[in-house]
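Students often ask why inverse folding is considered easier than folding. One informal answer: many sequences map to the same fold, so there is more than one right answer. In these notes we will look at a single instance of the problem. The structure comes first.
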């Protein structure tokens, strides 16, 4: 990690900013909130934006970035933009056109990083979550190595500067790494990672292969009812996090984000609130925080 700019070098030579702005939103939140929040994030200093085709906000994110380019705040090359290949586009002949679809929505010529969003495939078509008449998901059988070869072609075509994966376990990563004729390694694996699930083993494996781990839901997710048991503990209310925050005169959110950065993990943070966005950018502006006294959840610096 470059300590001055908090960039992490990827195995293909490109650099990824250590802190990224998350753009996933629940369906009931209006898309205009994404445009507004992304502009605030860029003004606050975020230069890494994490998005995906399936979030259905690439038009809004593109609009926000272009407006910040137009007013002189940033240039396109200052922004590190990630998109992700959705599971219904895994068939190799659909991969590049899916990326082109995202680029068209964004009005960009390239993405900085393109990820296989999940290591499973669903029936191709316009529906994002194809279901049969009984409401069951219709999966598709596509060899992940063939998907990866199509991702490599996107990089060769200059449409993605770097390529990686998301939600892959060690076995799935090994499958790609051991693929005969592998041209490019995945530069990163974006996974759920926070103080209650710190992915220590996967992180060790990724580090050993020079794959950057990117942490999502580092602040405990947006706690959407369909995905999160509402009686589960609220991460940012964790007493150890609270005690550390008090000790270092920082907020629990900053400690939770800084924890990831200090263990060599690139971290994403989502928010629609200006005060939170402005607070979260401090993650890359602080001096090192001593986090090595805490034992719980393996939540010690390493
Ligand atoms: N690859 C994948 O499969 C995958 C999956 C999930 C997410 N992601 C990516 O990761 C991003 C982040 O994950 P996430 O959306 O689950 O959310 P998150 O970053 O864990 O946290 C979101 C919530 O934390 C609260 N928060 C943020 N900053 C705060 C602060 N300074 N103080 C107090 N509370 C704060 C906000 O809630 P309030 O607004 O209510 O305060 C926000 O909704 C996503 O947006 C997406 O880009 C990727």
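Output (designed amino acids):
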């Amino acid at each position: 990690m470059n300590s001055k700019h908090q960039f992490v070098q990827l195995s293909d030579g490109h650099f990824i900013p250590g802190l990224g702005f998350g753009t996933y939103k629940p369906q009931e939140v209006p898309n205009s909130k994404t445009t507004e929040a992304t502009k605030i994030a860029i003004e606050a200093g975020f230069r890494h934006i994490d998005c995906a085709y399936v979030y259905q906000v690439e038009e809004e994110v593109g609009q926000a970035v272009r407006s910040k380019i137009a007013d002189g705040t940033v240039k396109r090359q200052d922004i590190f933009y990630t998109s992700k290949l959705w599971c219904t586009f895994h068939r190799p002949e659909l991969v590049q056109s899916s990326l082109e679809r995202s680029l068209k929505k964004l009005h960009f010529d390239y993405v900085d990083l393109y990820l296989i969003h999940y290591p499973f495939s669903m029936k191709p078509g316009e529906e994002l979550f194809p279901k049969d008449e009984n409401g069951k998901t219709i999966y598709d059988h596509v060899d992940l190595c063939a998907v990866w070869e199509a991702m490599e072609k996107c990089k060769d075509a200059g449409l993605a500067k770097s390529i990686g994966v998301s939600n892959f376990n060690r076995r799935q990563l090994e499958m790609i790494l051991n693929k005969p004729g592998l041209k490019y390694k995945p530069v990163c694996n974006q996974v759920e990672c926070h103080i209650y699930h710190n992915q220590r083993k996967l992180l060790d494996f990724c580090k050993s292969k020079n794959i950057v781990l990117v942490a999502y839901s580092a602040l405990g997710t947006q706690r959407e009812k369909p995905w999160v048991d509402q009686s589960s503990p609220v991460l940012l209310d964790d007493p150890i996090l609270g005690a550390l925050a008090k000790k270092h005169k920082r907020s629990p959110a900053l400690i939770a984000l800084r924890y990831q950065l200090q263990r060599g993990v690139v971290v994403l943070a989502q928010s629609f609130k200006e005060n939170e966005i402005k607070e979260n950018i401090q993650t890359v502006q602080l001096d090192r925080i001593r986090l090595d006294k805490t034992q719980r959840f393996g939540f010690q610096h390493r």
